[in-house]
Design a protein that fits this description.
Length: about 200
């Protein structure tokens, strides 16, 4: 039995800025051990809003799905704030993606937007809480990244060392840690190496 995981989101899904080229997705996959094979496909679009993600995810994922167990990771960014997408629309966009996935029996996991330079902190915190609420109502795992990283010295230093919007090696390591420790192992059916 094979599991295919499609990861949709902005350029952080592709690991932009990581000198090792792994990003958080590569680090998460590298720490995931399951009895069955896992195929992971990253589908990144730079600066993508939740509206754009909602419009494309199904078509793009359909081209990768076809395993015995298809799964979807939605990695949300801050582009909704840059493009004036309302909070209500952001919520609805995510809800539509998760509801459509559930109707197709595709298990979903959501990664929230991390803090970035030049993005209104209060607005991003509100957006992250809204996404978390949508996930909670649907019993979908949500990896909160904004709150743990907004004042994290290593995250902020890593952003500052680059362009302010994309972390480097340390920052992607922090994102991976947050994903792994917010329900990933249970969701993917893997043993948590720290519990074994």
């Amino acid at each position: 039995m094979s599991t295919r995981v499609a990861v949709v989101g902005d350029e952080l899904v592709a690991g932009v800025g990581d000198p090792r080229g792994m990003g958080w997705v590569g680090r998460v996959v590298g720490r995931t051990r399951t009895p069955e094979e896992i195929e992971v496909y990253t589908l990144a679009v730079p600066g993508e809003t939740s509206t754009q993600l909602s419009a494309r995810w199904e078509t793009e994922c359909n081209r990768r799905f076809g395993g015995d167990d298809d799964r979807l990771v939605v990695a949300l960014g801050s582009a909704d704030l840059d493009h004036g997408v309302s909070l209500a629309r952001s919520r609805l966009n995510l809800a539509n993606v998760l509801d459509d996935a559930a109707n197709r029996r595709v298990a979903a996991f959501v990664v929230g937007p991390p803090p970035r330079a030049g993005v209104d902190e209060a607005a991003l915190g509100e957006l992250s809480r809204a996404f978390a609420d949508v996930c909670r109502r649907r019993r979908v795992p949500y990896a909160e990244t904004f709150e743990p990283l907004r004042a994290h010295e290593q995250w902020l230093a890593d952003l500052a060392a680059g362009d302010g919007r994309h972390p480097g090696q340390a920052g992607y390591g922090l994102l991976a840690w947050l994903v792994l420790h917010n329900g990933w192992y249970a969701w993917i059916g893997a043993e948590d190496p720290e519990q074994s």
